[in-house]
Every structure is written in C-alpha cells, then in structure tokens.
C-alpha cells in the first residue's frame, strides 16, 4: 500500500528529493474518498512529471488513474489539513506511466483543494467529481474529407492531440506515453485515419484521361489551395470556387485525377460568433454592460451583482459581458439553478451567438460529458452552461463566471459533499483571476451583505425592457374572501382568471406543492398515512394514482381502506397540491387548456422545451406549477399570476424562510406581463400583515433585506456569522443517541466564542430508515470553524465518525 500523505506545513514541489538513495517521490491524488491529502509514490528513473500530470499508479493490486498533486500551501492556514506522519521512501511504489493528456490545470487543482478543505470532505471525493468525465482517450470529431491533387502528401500526421498541450514526455520518456499506450488499448496511438474504402483514389487510367478546361480549372484551384497551406477543399468549396457541378469533381476522382484525404478534424464545439445578432441595448443596459466589461478587459477578479427587476434584460446584458470575455479569447462558465431552464437559455444563446454552447448537467450521456470535459481543457469549449458541478470542469483559460439567479437555494448541494455552488464559483473565479457576475432580481442576503461591506460591486437595471412595466400586485385577504367549501381559489382570483382568458391572455397559478394532497387522513380513526421509511406524510398523487414520500421517493398504491382501522372509503385528502388545484380549475373552466409545470411533468430538457413551446405559442390557457414555474421563464402571453398560498413556506423555523419565500414569490410574480400588456399578480394569504407578504405587495425588496440584515447581524446569524451543522445518521435510534452523546461530551464547550446547539432530534427524525440527530455550531465571522470541527471529530471513535455528515454553511435544518 502506498503511504498516506497528508501535507506537510511547508511548501514543496510536486517532485521531492529524499535523502534515501536519492529516490525521488511524488505526491499523487487519487479519486477516492480516502483520508489524507494524496499518496506518495516514487518516480522511476528518467520519468519527469509536472504538477497536474495524469498518471497511472498501483493501488493495492489495481492500476489507478491519479493526478500529480502539490501540497495545499495556498490555502489559508486554518483550512490547511493537519501535518502528515513522516514517510518511509523504501516502502514507496513507483508511478507506472504518465498519460498523453494535458495536465489538470493548476487553477482547478487549487479549487479542488479549496472545496475539500472548506467543506471538510476527502480530497479524493472532490477530485472524483472532476475526473468522472475525463475521457480515457481523446474524443474526436470526424475528420473532414477534402479533395486534394494526386501529388499531395499531408505535411504532418493528423493528430487529435494537436490542440492539446504539448506533452513533455511525448518523446523523451521511457516508457513514453505513446509507447506505453500501445500496450494498453485504452490509449491507442493516433495517426492519420485510414481513408474509407469508397474514398480511395482510383488507379490512374492511363494516358487517355482527358483534361478539359473545366478539369484544368479544378486542378489549378486545388493546387492553389494547397499552396495557401490548406489540406484540400470540400466538394462544396471546390464546386463554388470553380463554378462547376459536383458530378464533374466526382468524375475526375474516378478518372484518377484527384483524391480525397483527411483534413483537420472539426472542432468539438463551434466558436460563438460575437457579431451574430447584437441587440441594441437601452441606455441603462449599455451602462450596465460596460460596467461589467471593465474588469473583464483588465483580467481582474472582482464580483459584481447585476441586480435588475424581472424582465429588465439581465441576460442580454451579461451576454454582452460574455462577448467581451470571448473577445479576449477566454472561456466563460454560466451556472443556472436548474437544468429545466437550460433549454430556453440555450435557444437565447443561439439567437445571440449563432451556435450552441457546451452544456453540462446530470442528464447527459457519458460521451457528451467526455466531449465537454475535453473541450474545456483544450479551450475548444468557449462557453459552458450548466449545473453546479460544471465548476469542476478543467477550464484552460477561464475568463468569466456568471451565476444566474444567484439567490437560488438549488445552488446548495446537499448530497455527497455539501457545498454552495455560488460561493464556490467565487473561489473558482478568484483562483483564475476572472471576474464574477451574480445576476438576480432578488439578491440573497449574503450578496447584499457583501455589497454593504464594499466587497462586491453593484450594477442596477431599474426598469423592464421596452414598454413592459412591472406587474401590479394585489393582496387577497383570505379571511375576507374565502374560497367556497372544499375549494382553494378565492372567487376574486377566479373572476380575474376568467377576465384574463376572455382577452386571450394566459394565467399562471403557483403553489409550491407537488401532487394532489400533502396528507391523507382516515375520517373514522384519525390515522394519517405515513412513509414506512421516514418521519413524513405520504403525498397523494392522482396522475398517475399513488402515494409518494417526497423525502425518499417510496411509492405505494392509493388505498381505499384505512390500513389502521379498516374503514372503507373514508380516507380524506387534506390540503391542496397542484393536481388538486388543476382539478378545481377544470371544474371552473372545463373548456380551458391546462398544463402542469412541476418536476413530475418536466422530466427532461426535451419535455420541458415541448411544454414551454406550447405555452409560448399560446396553445395553453392556464399554467399551474410549483417552483419550476418561477425561474427565468419568459412567456409573452402571460399576464395574470395567482399565488395560491403565499403563507406556505413561512411556517417552520428555518432561518431563511422569510428571505426565501420573498425571493420565490417575487420571481413568480415577475412572470406576469413581460411584454406590452400590463401584468397583474393576486396573492392569497391568511396573514397579509406579515412583513414578508407586505414587502412582496409593496415590491420593496431592499427594505426587507435591510430589516432582515439587522436581525441577523444582532444574532451573528449568517451571513454575519459562521455555522456548521453535524448530522448524525444511524440504523438504530440507540446508536444515533450514543453518537450524539459522544459528540455532546467532546464538544468544545470551553470556547466561549462558540455557540453549540444540540444534539437535537430534527423534524425528519427518520429518513430512509436512518435515525437522525443534529448539532449546530456557530461562531463570529472571524473564526474558521473547520479546524475546530476537525479536532472535535477526532475525539470520538472512528466508527462513530463514519455516521456524521458535515454541512458547512447549512441551508436546511430539517
Ligand atoms: N436590449 C434588448 N433588445 C431586445 N430585446 C431585449 C433587450 N433587453 C431585453 N430584451 C428582451 O426582454 C425580455 C426580458 O429580458 P431578460 O430575460 O434578459 O430579462 P431578465 O432580467 O433576465 O429577466 P428575469 O429576471 O425575469 O429572468 C427577453 O425576451 C429579452 O430578449
Ligand atoms: Zn420516505
């Protein structure tokens, strides 16, 4: 086994001289969740390695792919991992080979260090996210077949690696990567592809071949192209330049006068055309675009919030900033909060830049992923748009990062290692010396606080684009205008819906709850249908009919008999989900065309675009949706938005409940009246005096943030303090209790500058059959909690440590 090697406190190059018989050692990071900061290996004589090189090393009996790593001395001292025990060079095993791939860029390696250290995750776990899509062999687009004169021989062999970094070991090393590759089918050597049989030039058919003037023109044209340094001309090019018919060209090939050979392979991604469709920006927009472009031209890191009311043209404005980065020949990364949004975003990008960007999300084939990965490292992918994990792509020259809808909670990843992609995007950009644009109509308090502190710049778009105005918002006090019995829509809302649809305009109803009813209750015995694996009610769905646990996705048929008392047909649905709202709407407006937008119906980007196209084309009258309808959609005929239950997410003790409710509802409201016709929003609430509902009605988001920031500042809550949650999960309640007790006993209670809360039993006491307990540790902003947590966890048994998940900057408290 290789020696575990967490880093030493001092800086060291990738390859170190050790005194033992001058054996050289090298630090290698492996994509597995192992403890420590990489493994040491010895370097075979004659092999030279650079940091970032991709290598094969032995691990146990297997051969693994790893990366030549450096000690993370660039990290702030409190985040640096503890020192490693001294290593014994005699026990080290040698690196097997260096692979013929460009090295992993330093900015990415340093980013991986950062994420691992900040989130207290194993380095290899974070690295694995980065390497998952690394192609085992370079992905190639098919070469173009070009016409060439018979005499032509290509000057250099065709190599798909031509665009990649020149590898120092390609010629010198023994066994060199290319030689090595011959023994391993995964790394074939690359030479000129064999022409396919039907493209082979015919044999010269003797002196009888006629050279007509047309044929002579073609030969001249090809010779000239070769003299100009081209590899040949395509049929279309040749036909156009010589004004001849393609059949003449084919006949010449048959007669053996010209041949076809491989030209350069097409690029993996076509470069965006910066001048393809440049919009005329309004004065405000132009000013904003210029403010965003200055740091891009200067290549300096800084964060700018692009705040603009919904429909103000934030996307158009940051497209302009992207064009600036592309003009500097640097790459752009755009993070979107949800894949569902990518379809509309991509078509806007195409409209502006004439090509499709590289796309990155969980719904891609392995081949598509490999292509994007390689496009990033070879700088062929100029623009990547994607979900959080796009942060871990190996950009060669990152020049701009855009985080659209920066306030979205979906940027916070909670599975695997938990990180906030917005925050990590800032680190990523900083390491690449690239500016960041955070775009939002409702910025997060985190971003607001950074602007107040003078750390971020602020660019504002105060108006909607063109003649569109912001929607008129009206509160419906449900105590005064209650719905009919068994219904959920106030008569005032349904009247407004009818009026809107009479004018051939569309209505959107928003309720952030999937399914038909969140709870099913037995009227005879009071039994509530609960998930057998979680502390959660089973949600009734009617389409298709079944009970679903929204926590663990457990499903079972809808019963007609109470499982507790056996009473027949006495189960009652309690409360509405969107399917129940759809049912009500169908009763009220049987002729109208209704569509549901929720994760149950927007199952793929294709399905999403289909629904979005129908809405945009005016083929739907009423759109009913969960939070999936809130984000960034632009539906030209939509003029009325009804919020079915504004109070829904205000309940529950979540620290950010108010902020998030306001952001979400403001986004939903922002879908109304985005073109000529004035938009209207009706908000149903049983507590219209609540500060969040008031702020929403007044549209004064900043006033709310100011107030909220005062409250959080006073209590040192984020973003004015730091917080880490420890989540204990165990198969039995006793075990969860035991570990909670161990944590409570060893907690750093002596530190008066910390606040330690718990252990407590969360609302979700059982999740997927695992019993849960939580602890929360808080500190002022000046204290890094990571080393404290690390020390704390080292005091409890190793076996218990495995049952603890660390959530740095938690968003969820359930
Ligand atoms: N300068 C412009 N020229 C032409 N069309 C524009 C311009 N600015 C904005 N638009 C159009 O106005 C609409 C709204 O713009 P956009 O979607 O960029 O706004 P946004 O601020 O990103 O909105 P939201 O926050 O609601 O997502 C879009 O259809 C966009 O194409
Ligand atoms: Zn469940």
From TrEMBL:
Could you tell me which SMART domains the record lists for this protein? DEXDc (SM00487), HELICc (SM00490)
Renumbered to this chain, the Polar residues biased-composition regions fall at: 188-199
Q: Which reaction does it catalyse?
A: Couples ATP hydrolysis with the unwinding of duplex DNA by translocating in the 3'-5' direction; ATP + H2O = ADP + phosphate + H(+)
- Detail which positions bind Zn(2+) 2: 531, 534, 549, 552
Q: Where is this region: Disordered?
A: 178-208
Q: What is its EC number?
A: 5.6.2.4
One GO process term, biological-process aspect: DNA recombination
Give the cofactor binding note: Binds 2 zinc ions per subunit.
Domain of life from the UniProt record? Bacteria
Q: Which GO terms describe its molecular function?
A: 3'-5' DNA helicase activity; ATP binding; DNA binding; hydrolase activity; zinc ion binding
**GO CC terms in record:** primosome complex
Q: Which UniProt keywords apply?
A: ATP-binding, DNA replication, DNA-binding, Helicase, Hydrolase, Isomerase, Metal-binding, Nucleotide-binding, Primosome, Zinc
Any Pfam family matching the protein? Zn_ribbon_PriA
Q: Which residues are involved in binding Zn(2+) 1?
A: 522, 525, 562, 565
Cited InterPro entries:
DEAD/DEAH_box_helicase_dom (IPR011545), Helicase_ATP-bd (IPR014001), Helicase_C-like (IPR001650), P-loop_NTPase (IPR027417), PriA (IPR005259), PriA_3primeBD (IPR041222), PriA_3primeBD_sf (IPR042115), PriA_C (IPR041236)
What this protein needs as a cofactor is: Zn(2+)
Matching entries from HAMAP family are given as: PriA
To which protein family does this belong?
A: Belongs to the helicase family. PriA subfamily.
- Function recorded in the entry: Initiates the restart of stalled replication forks, which reloads the replicative helicase on sites other than the origin of replication. Recognizes and binds to abandoned replication forks and remodels them to uncover a helicase loading site. Promotes assembly of the primosome at these replication forks.
> What's the protein here called?
Replication restart protein PriA
